[in-house]
Write a structure and sequence with these properties.
The structure is a single chain. Helices cover about 50% and strands about 5% of the residues. With about 130 residues, the chain is mainly α. The chain has 2 domains: about 30 residues; about 80 residues. A hairpin with a 2-residue loop joins β1 and β2. α2 packs across α6. The chain is elongated and about 70 Å long. The chain starts with a helix and ends with a helix.
Length: about 130
């Protein structure tokens, strides 16, 4: 085997390893809720009143940055946010209003503010508030 062919095989093996590791990390980051830590405990029962808020969460694209009830991007989980924030603080954080606006990069704040006057805004807040 020549030096050039060994270099090609090494480059191929390295690229394959990078792709496989990327796939593994993506899979681990987006595990189905049934496989996530703590999912073996009793599942949270959701009521019919949660559905409009959950649908608003999906329509607003909140799952791209946040997770709730094991769904969405686990980088910024919102489980328990209803116990930590009162309704006004939750509104400010959810829609980047008031003093909470300073915590977000401008592009994120603009995206959040775009949903502040949606018809679904109150349903979304009610859903976030029940995440305790």
């Amino acid at each position: 085997m020549t030096r050039q062919s060994r270099a090609r095989w090494l480059a191929f093996a390295t690229a394959l390893l990078v792709v496989l590791l990327a796939a593994l990390f993506a899979w681990l980051r987006n595990l189905p809720p049934a496989l996530q830590a703590g999912a073996l405990h009793a599942p949270k029962t959701s009521s019919a009143s949660d559905e409009p808020g959950r649908a608003a969460f999906v329509r607003a694209g909140c799952g791209g940055c946040h997770s709730a009830e094991g769904r969405g991007n686990p980088a910024y989980p919102l489980d328990g946010v209803g116990a930590r924030l009162d309704r006004e603080s939750l509104r400010d954080a959810a829609f980047a209003l008031g003093g909470a606006a300073e915590r977000f990069p401008p592009a994120v704040a603009q995206r959040k503010r775009a949903h502040a006057n949606d018809a679904d805004a109150e349903a979304l807040l009610a859903y976030l508030q029940q995440l305790k």
